[in-house]
């Protein structure tokens, strides 16, 4: 985990605790402490026991803590021991303990509650019968009111926690209907029928009145009955106090003490038998899942062997060869077996375990009996039997990509509401991430290391199956649980490698994924220059209209014509390109995305009907992608492509506008020297604008897109699975968006303003050129008509001279006006101010973030140090303004109005200096 992520988590925790920024202990202290102590650690039983004792020794209620720990441990709560170890480390931090205690007191005071235990409050009350003053009575009332407020809060919190826990335990399973007679006939059980605390037969003679031999014979018969779940005459079963409580028995007290002691030693076997039989009959129901049913079946097999032992003992008893001592000798191995079975049953019952949790519990039980070979062999048999249905689901998933999990026990969960058809509809594509997900509570501990591979293996095969291809895994073998030899791990990895290879071949070779992505790059990232130029030439008139007046069918026709008449005609996927008119411009779209869940989000909630968009502002390409390529080129990726295209497309439009101005400015050659000098400032400004736009385009096309595309291609040559393909493709698009400044609102605003200044300037100059052209066309000819070719030539020359004279006079009239000069000066001032602001913010952003990719723009725009001098002059001017006593009066002069200002010799530009004034100046 990186330092920034640790710092983020620490800050979030401190915010939840209500820690103020003025407190002495801040996030940096804890972040440094965590980073210094970060190392791999595995919690063992010894360290967990030491941590438990340490916490019990530091708490005021050690008995309650130990009881709670044992209760959670019995329920097989995951990650309990690591949590206890973490808490034990917190008990050593006195500063942390003081802060948490102080925070709890402050929070209790704000809520009007107290942290004093109830018994301590009641002990401070006066003895009964004593007289109280008014002041003492009010103090007692305040204490009681605080306790009354705190008690319901605790109770409601516990109720809420319980309700949430119960809600998580609810599973969406389809349980078949069970017949009514199953519930109406409770005697259909191998367990004890709920008995009474006294004999039902009143004619039973007390054992104490019989001879010792008859006492032993009678009590052996009762023991054999109790071993089968049947009450005897002198041994009675008590009613259960709880659902999973152990069975208790009553013995005739008149029995000989020596025999009575032998009977007491053997009764735990009957109690464990009752526990196991109850578990088998309960967990065999549908709602407890296949794993519990398989475990119950394995226990039932062992109970059959146990019943054979009871039958053999009954046979020996009828032959008269059985005594209590022999019974005690014969049942020794069985007592240990039933003790383990009862312990497993109690653990599953207490934790309400289902599916993978049962397997985790059995695995831990098996590992814990490493010194008891017989017990470990028994637990291994139970674990292998319980794993059979779970591994059958696993085999079907990793070998065929199908989930057959009727009772929601498998670690992979399917969300049927998310379908692959939505890949081309939803922006936030969730099919690959959410259609199949891992449910962590269902992962057995012995499969935790390969859980991600299990998920991805089935996902890959599922995609292949949905494409209509047969799946025949060459290593499809039965998976069997083993304690030492983790052979099933190798089988899972082999299935994963096979699924990855097949799906990659399907996407790369049959579906031609790279060719499709390369085709998208041609159109969305302006890789086909002749196609883009031809398309923009054809659609220039359409793009100038409002979006409501544009006919999409006409744009589709022009797109088809541009594709067929350019080098894009050789592209086999050109027919998948479509035209789309979006109801918002690029800036609104980007700011809405960048400001999600922030205070600025409401500023960009614009009604589409309020936006008067032109075709140029709303135009974008769309692309038709079919399954399974839509896994990679999904709607989210297409939206990124569209944002990049709209940004590049608009920059290309601005460049074309400035080039049109350059073409129109060639008419100035016919003007007189007096007329052309008025246009010199406009010509220089146009050239600087064109230089900026062309260098900005070059940076995005060659230093961002091509560079990241080369990295993407290199990564794709060594890719091994589809998840890497998704990650590499997403990284390519994200890096392009970031390096093109589409993820930085501050830089994006300035770039947008610069483009708007260039477009406005182009429109202004073109309007002047059009007026001059109209004036030239309307100039009357004063020459008479002559005949002959020579006369016609002289006539054309005289007309041209007359027209030039009229245009020159018209241009002189416009150029001499103060409005023209002032307008050009304003354009120069705005462009210079915004460009310097952009350069400064790029330097500041690069220095703060440590990412120097954007420096390439500075190197291209400021190759001769021209803008550096202006930045230094601006920095020196701001320093002088801040040092002046009248800075408030002269703050409006933060930016130079043009590039004619001189730079002081002592000025040096420092990135980040005076940045607040720059922001204020831009606003």
From TrEMBL:
<feature type="domain" description="Gamma tubulin complex component C-terminal">
    <location>
        <begin position="513"/>
        <end position="867"/>
    </location>
</feature>
<keyword id="KW-0963">Cytoplasm</keyword>
<comment type="similarity">
    <text>Belongs to the TUBGCP family.</text>
</comment>
<feature type="region of interest" description="Disordered">
    <location>
        <begin position="882"/>
        <end position="923"/>
    </location>
</feature>
<dbReference type="InterPro" id="IPR041470">
    <property type="entry name" value="GCP_N"/>
</dbReference>
<dbReference type="GO" id="GO:0005874">
    <property type="term" value="C:microtubule"/>
</dbReference>
<dbReference type="GO" id="GO:0051321">
    <property type="term" value="P:meiotic cell cycle"/>
</dbReference>
<protein>
    <recommendedName>
        <fullName>Gamma-tubulin complex component</fullName>
    </recommendedName>
</protein>
<dbReference type="GO" id="GO:0005813">
    <property type="term" value="C:centrosome"/>
</dbReference>
<dbReference type="GO" id="GO:0000278">
    <property type="term" value="P:mitotic cell cycle"/>
</dbReference>
<dbReference type="InterPro" id="IPR040457">
    <property type="entry name" value="GCP_C"/>
</dbReference>
<dbReference type="GO" id="GO:0000930">
    <property type="term" value="C:gamma-tubulin complex"/>
</dbReference>
<dbReference type="GO" id="GO:0000922">
    <property type="term" value="C:spindle pole"/>
</dbReference>
<keyword id="KW-0493">Microtubule</keyword>
<feature type="domain" description="Gamma tubulin complex component protein N-terminal">
    <location>
        <begin position="220"/>
        <end position="510"/>
    </location>
</feature>
<dbReference type="Pfam" id="PF17681">
    <property type="entry name" value="GCP_N_terminal"/>
</dbReference>
<keyword id="KW-0206">Cytoskeleton</keyword>
<comment type="function">
    <text>Component of the gamma-tubulin ring complex (gTuRC) which mediates microtubule nucleation. The gTuRC regulates the minus-end nucleation of alpha-beta tubulin heterodimers that grow into microtubule protafilaments, a critical step in centrosome duplication and spindle formation. Plays a role in neuronal migration.</text>
</comment>
<dbReference type="GO" id="GO:0043015">
    <property type="term" value="F:gamma-tubulin binding"/>
</dbReference>
<dbReference type="InterPro" id="IPR042241">
    <property type="entry name" value="GCP_C_sf"/>
</dbReference>
<dbReference type="GO" id="GO:0007020">
    <property type="term" value="P:microtubule nucleation"/>
</dbReference>
<feature type="region of interest" description="Disordered">
    <location>
        <begin position="779"/>
        <end position="803"/>
    </location>
</feature>
<dbReference type="GO" id="GO:0051225">
    <property type="term" value="P:spindle assembly"/>
</dbReference>
<dbReference type="GO" id="GO:0051011">
    <property type="term" value="F:microtubule minus-end binding"/>
</dbReference>
<dbReference type="InterPro" id="IPR007259">
    <property type="entry name" value="GCP"/>
</dbReference>
<dbReference type="GO" id="GO:0031122">
    <property type="term" value="P:cytoplasmic microtubule organization"/>
</dbReference>
<feature type="compositionally biased region" description="Low complexity">
    <location>
        <begin position="883"/>
        <end position="901"/>
    </location>
</feature>
<dbReference type="Pfam" id="PF04130">
    <property type="entry name" value="GCP_C_terminal"/>
</dbReference>
<comment type="subunit">
    <text>Component of the gamma-tubulin ring complex (gTuRC) consisting of TUBGCP2, TUBGCP3, TUBGCP4, TUBGCP5 and TUBGCP6 and gamma-tubulin TUBG1 or TUBG2. TUBGCP2, TUBGCP3, TUBGCP4, TUBGCP5 and TUBGCP6 assemble in a 5:5:2:1:1 stoichiometry; each is associated with a gamma-tubulin, thereby arranging 14 gamma-tubulins in a helical manner. Gamma-tubulin at the first position is blocked by TUBGCP3 at the last position, allowing 13 protafilaments to grow into a microtubule.</text>
</comment>
């Amino acid at each position: 985990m990186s330092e920034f992520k640790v710092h983020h988590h620490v800050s979030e925790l401190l915010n939840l605790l209500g820690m103020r920024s003025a407190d002495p202990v801040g996030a940096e202290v804890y972040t440094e402490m965590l980073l210094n102590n970060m190392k791999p650690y595995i919690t063992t039983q010894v360290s967990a026991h030491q941590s438990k004792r340490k916490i019990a020794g530091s708490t005021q209620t050690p008995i309650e803590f130990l009881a709670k720990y044992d209760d959670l441990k019995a329920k097989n709560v995951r990650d309990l021991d690591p949590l206890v170890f973490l808490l034990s480390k917190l008990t050593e931090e006195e500063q942390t303990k003081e802060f948490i205690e102080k925070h709890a007191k402050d929070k209790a005071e704000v809520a009007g509650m107290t942290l004093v235990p109830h018994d301590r409050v009641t002990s401070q009350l006066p003895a009964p019968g004593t007289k109280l003053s008014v002041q003492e009575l009010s103090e007692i009332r305040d204490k009681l009111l605080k306790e009354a407020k705190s008690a319901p809060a605790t109770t409601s919190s516990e109720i809420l926690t319980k309700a949430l826990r119960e809600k998580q335990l609810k599973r969406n399973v389809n349980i078949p209907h069970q017949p009514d007679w199953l519930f109406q006939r409770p005697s259909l059980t191998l367990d004890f029928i709920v008995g009474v605390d006294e004999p039902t037969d009143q004619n039973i003679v007390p054992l104490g009145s019989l001879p010792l031999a008859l006492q032993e014979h009678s009590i052996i018969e009762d023991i054999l009955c109790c071993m089968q779940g049947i009450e005897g005459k002198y041994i009675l079963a008590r009613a259960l106090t709880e659902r999973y409580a152990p069975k208790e028995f009553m013995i005739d007290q008149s029995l000989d003490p020596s025999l009575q002691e032998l009977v007491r030693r053997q009764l735990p076997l009957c109690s464990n038998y009752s526990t196991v039989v109850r578990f088998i009959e309960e967990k065999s129901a549908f709602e407890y899942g296949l794993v519990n049913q398989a475990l119950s079946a394995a226990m039932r097999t062992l109970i059959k062997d146990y019943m054979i032992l009871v039958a053999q003992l009954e046979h020996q008893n009828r032959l008269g060869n059985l005594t209590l001592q022999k019974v005690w000798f014969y049942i020794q191995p069985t007592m240990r077996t039933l003790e383990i079975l009862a312990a497993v049953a109690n653990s599953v019952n207490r934790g309400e375990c289902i599916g993978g949790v049962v397997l985790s519990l059995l695995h831990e039980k098996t590992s814990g009996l490493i010194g008891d070979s017989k017990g470990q062999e028994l637990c291994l048999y139970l674990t292998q039997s319980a794993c059979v249905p779970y591994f059958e689901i696993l085999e079907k998933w990793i070998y065929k990509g199908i989930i057959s999990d009727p009772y929601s026990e498998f670690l992979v969960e399917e969300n049927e509401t998310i379908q692959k058809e939505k890949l081309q509809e939803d922006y936030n594509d969730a099919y690959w991430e959410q259609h199949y997900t891992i449910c962590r509570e269902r992962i057995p501990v012995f499969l935790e290391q390969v859980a991600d591979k299990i998920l991805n293996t089935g996902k890959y095969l599922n995609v292949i199956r949905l494409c209509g291809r047969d799946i025949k895994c060459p290593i499809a073998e039965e998976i069997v649980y083993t304690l030492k030899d983790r052979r099933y791990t190798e089988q899972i990895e082999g299935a994963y490698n096979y699924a990855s290879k097949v799906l990659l071949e399907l996407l790369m070779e049959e579906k031609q994924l790279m060719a499709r992505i390369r085709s998208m790059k041609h159109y969305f990232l302006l890789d086909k220059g002749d196609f883009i130029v031809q398309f923009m030439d054809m659609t220039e008139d359409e793009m100038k209209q409002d979006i409501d007046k544009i006919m999409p069918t006409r744009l589709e026709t022009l797109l088809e014509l541009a594709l067929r008449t350019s080098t894009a005609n050789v592209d086999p996927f050109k027919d998948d390109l479509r035209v789309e008119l979006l109801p918002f411009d690029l800036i609104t779209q980007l700011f809405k995305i960048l400001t999600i869940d922030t205070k600025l989000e409401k500023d960009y909630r614009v009604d589409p009907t309020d936006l008067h968009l032109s075709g140029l502002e709303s135009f974008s390409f769309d692309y038709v992608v079919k399954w399974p390529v839509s896994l990679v080129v999904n709607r989210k990726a297409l939206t990124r492509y569209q944002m990049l295209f709209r940004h590049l497309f608009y920059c290309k439009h601005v460049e074309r506008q400035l080039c049109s101005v350059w073409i129109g400015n060639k008419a100035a050659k016919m003007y007189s020297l007096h007329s052309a000098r008025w246009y010199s400032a406009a010509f220089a400004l146009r050239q600087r604008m064109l230089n900026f736009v062309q260098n900005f385009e070059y940076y995005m096309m060659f230093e961002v897109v091509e560079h990241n595309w080369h990295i993407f291609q290199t990564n794709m040559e060594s890719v091994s699975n589809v998840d890497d393909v998704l990650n590499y493709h997403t990284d390519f698009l994200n890096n392009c968006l970031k390096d093109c400044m589409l993820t930085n609102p501050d830089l994006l605003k300035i770039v947008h303003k610069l483009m708007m200044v260039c477009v406005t300037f182009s429109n202004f100059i073109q309007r002047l050129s059009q007026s001059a052209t109209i004036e030239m066309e309307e100039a009357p000819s004063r020459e008479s008509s002559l005949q002959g070719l020579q006369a016609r030539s002289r006539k054309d020359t005289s007309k041209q001279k007359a027209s030039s004279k009229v245009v020159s006079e018209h241009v002189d009239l416009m150029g001499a006006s103060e409005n023209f000069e002032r307008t050009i000066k304003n354009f120069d001032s705005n462009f210079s101010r915004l460009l310097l602001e952009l350069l400064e913010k790029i330097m500041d952003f690069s220095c703060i973030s440590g990412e120097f990719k954007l420096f390439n723009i500075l190197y291209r725009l400021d190759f001769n140090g021209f803008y550096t001098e202006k930045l230094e002059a601006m920095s020196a001017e701001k320093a002088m303004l801040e040092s002046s006593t009248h800075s408030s009066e002269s703050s409006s002069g933060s930016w130079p109005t043009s590039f004619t200002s001189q730079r002081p010799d002592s000025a040096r530009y420092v990135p980040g200096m005076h940045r607040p004034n720059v922001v204020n100046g831009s606003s």
